[in-house]
Design brief:
By secondary structure, this protein is mainly α. The protein contains ten helices and no strands. It is flat.
């Protein structure tokens, strides 16, 4: 197989540079007029920006030449299976593993653990988000297979989320709606979305634009629900301890 690993890499470098340059200008402005950090700290920040540039460029290049093509191939192959329902548990497993490897989820978990001084453990929050995304991927695969309209999940889901937010604590409500954003990161969007698109393309009567892309809406919703449920459990346990 002739795989051009660095095909289009110049465009990727340009995209990453355009994304990081505003952040660098923002930092330099505050460094000159407000922060005035010592050179040792500035040097560390510059190295971090450099590593970020290299890492993002290599990751996005890997997405273009690896993740997306492989994901679509897997989806197309699975779409030809006789027992297509197998993709539902497979989607659950892929969603769980992808969230476990999601960099943004790791950062959120560590920050929550640090800010709450261990009250909300990072590992507990990681499992909560992973289970939520896993359920959402499984539901998305079932929706593609059986042709269930997206709003059957989105409407009741957000109604339930807003209802639980009224009874949950402000801390868990804030974390929950941030979790919905970080869960839709590069691992989920690049690999699992590609599988969903490839799968929906092989099914007769399915539109990849409607069935495939609707999966991200479910992925954004599921962590909100699971974190809010976790908040209600914490609140219930606290009320019992005071009795």
């Amino acid at each position: 197989m002739d795989v051009k690993i660095f095909y289009g890499f110049d465009h990727v470098l340009t995209e990453v540079a355009m994304a990081l340059i505003p952040l660098v200008i923002f930092f330099l402005f505050f460094q000159l007029f407000m922060l005035k950090l010592p050179w040792k700290r500035v040097k560390g920040i510059i190295m971090g920006i450099l590593f970020t540039f290299i890492g993002l460029a290599l990751f996005l290049q890997g997405v273009h030449v690896g993740f997306l093509p492989v994901g679509r191939e897997i989806g197309e192959i699975v779409g030809d299976w006789e027992n297509q329902w197998i993709l539902i548990p497979v989607g659950f497993l892929l969603g769980f593993v992808a969230t476990f490897a999601e960099p943004a989820v790791r950062v959120l978990n560590l920050e929550v653990d640090k800010v709450t001084s261990g009250y909300i453990p990072a590992r507990l929050l990681l499992y909560t988000l992973s289970i939520g995304v896993a359920i959402s991927i499984a539901l998305a695969m079932a929706r593609i297979i059986y042709g269930i309209p997206l709003w059957y999940f989105i409407g009741p889901g957000y109604f339930l989320a807003l209802t639980m937010a009224l009874f949950s604590t402000e801390t868990f409500t804030s974390i929950a709606f941030d979790a919905g954003g970080v869960a839709t990161g590069p691992m989920t969007v690049t690999f699992i979305l590609a599988i969903a698109l490839g799968f929906s393309e092989t099914l007769e009567g399915r539109d990849p634009l409607l069935d495939g892309f609707g999966m991200i809406a479910l992925v954004a919703l599921a962590p909100i629900l699971t974190v809010l449920i976790l908040g209600l459990i914490f609140k219930y346990n606290e009320s019992r301890s005071y009795d």
